[in-house]
Amino acid sequence: MSEPFLPFGLPDIGEDEIAEVVDTLRSGWITTGPKARRFELEFAAFLGDPALHCIAVNSATAGLHLALEALGIGPGDEVITTTHTFTATAEVVRYLGADVKLVDIDPATLNIDPREVEAAITARTKAIVPVHYGGLAADMPALLDIARRHGLKVVEDAAHALPTTSAGRLVGTLPSDATVFSFYANKTITTGEGGMLVTRDAALARRAHVMRLHGMSRDAFDRFTASTPSWYYEIVAPGFKYNLTDIAAAIGLHQLKKAHTFAQRRRAIAERFNEAFAALPVLTPPCAPSEDLHAWHLYALRLADGAAIARDRLIERLFELGIGCSVHYVPLHQQPYWRDRYQLTPQMFPHSQRVYERQLSLPIYTRMSDADVERVIRGVEHAVGARS
C-alpha cells in the first residue's frame, strides 16, 4: 500500500471553530452557558422557525431519552422502532422500563416500513421512533397518519438527517412530537459529542429542559449571571446529566453555518459514486424523491446477486488497499441483548437481514478530495471485479 490510509470518516473542523473554542476558553464560561443558548436559537433559525423549542444535549441518545421520558413512556408501554439501527435508538426505551417492538425495513428505502409498524401496534403501544437511515427521510406522511389514527406519539431519530427534507419540509419541522439530531464526530455536522432535541410542544420542552440537568429548576448559567443574588434552586425531579457544554456549542455554531455546503459536497460525492458503480454488480443507495434533500450521511453500497465476492471479503480487500469502511448496521435482532430478550430470529426481519449480509458503508465526507473519491471508486472496482 503506497498511499496513506483513507479513514472511513473525518470531521471537517476549520479555523472559525477553533477560534470560537479559544474564545470560549478565555471567556471563563466553558460549561452550559451563553454559547449553548445561542446554538439553540441559531438551530431553530436554521430550521426556519424560531418558535421551535431547541434543547442542546450531550448526545442524541440523551435527546431521545429526554423526549420519551417527557412523553410519559414507562413500564408496561411499548415503543416501535426499526431493527436496522444503532442500539441507542432502542436502548432509551429500556432506560424507562418500557419494551421495544422491532420491525423490518422497506427494502426499497432501507427505512422503517410503515406497513410493518401498523401491523405491530398493540394495546400497549405508545410511540413510534422512526430512523431516517443514512440521511434519507423515512415515510413520514404514512407514519404520522398511522400515529394519528392510533393515538401514538412520534419521536424522530434524525441522527443522520441534517439537512434532510420530507415532502419538501426540513426534518425537525414536521408535525411529530419531537425530533432528535446527532452531532457526534462522524455526523453531518459535529460538536465532538452532542445532540439537539427539537419540539413544538412547550410542555415537553419544559420537562426536557429541567431533566437535562439533574431536575434542577434553574440552570447554572441563570443562577450565576443574574444581577441580583440568585443562588437558590430546587430539585423538582430525579433528572439526568445531559447538558451540552459551551466548548462543544462553540464548534456547533460554525458547523451549522456550513451545514448546507457540507451537504452539497457529500451529495456530489454520492452522485459520482452512483455514476461510477452503475455497471458493477452492486446496488447503490436509494435516492430521495426529486423534490426532497438527502443528507448523505452514509453511502451504503450493497452487493447484488451476481457479485463474485462476499461482503466481508470486500471489506478486507478495501482495507488492504488502504480504504476504511464500515457496516451500518449489525441489526438489533442480531445483537445478543435484543435477540435474547425478545426471542428474535433473522427470519423475522428478512429485508434487514439480507441488507446486513450484503452491505457496507464507503467513506463519504467533506474532507475527501476528488482524488480520494476516485481512489475509493478504483478500490471498489478492483475488489468487486476480482474473485476471492
SSE diagram, text form:
Blueprint: H1 15-27, H2 34-46, E1 53-57, H3 60-70, E2 78-82, H4 88-95, E3 99-103, H5 114-120, E4 125-129, H6 140-150, E5 153-158, E6 165-166, E7 169-170, E8 178-182, E9 195-199, H7 202-211, H8 220-225, H9 246-257, H10 259-277, E10 282-283, E11 299-303, H11 311-320, H12 336-342, H13 350-358, E12 359-362, H14 370-385
Parallel strand pairs: 2-3, 2-4, 4-5, 5-8
Antiparallel strand pairs: 1-9, 6-7, 8-9, 10-11, 11-12
Report on the structure:
The chain is of the alpha/beta class. It has two domains: 243 residues, Aspartate Aminotransferase, domain 2 (3-Layer(aba) Sandwich), CATH 3.40.640; 127 residues, Aspartate Aminotransferase, domain 1 (Alpha-Beta Complex). 39% of the residues lie in helices and 13% in strands. The chain has 14 helices and twelve strands. The strands form three sheets. It has a seven-stranded mixed beta sheet with strand order 1-9-8-5-4-2-3, with helices on both faces. A three-stranded antiparallel beta sheet has the order 10-11-12. The chain has a two-stranded antiparallel ribbon with strand order 6-7. Helix 4 links the parallel strand 2 and strand 3. The two termini are 19 Å apart.
Characteristics:
2 domains; 12 strands; 39% helix; alpha/beta; Aspartate Aminotransferase, domain 1; 388 residues; Aspartate Aminotransferase, domain 2
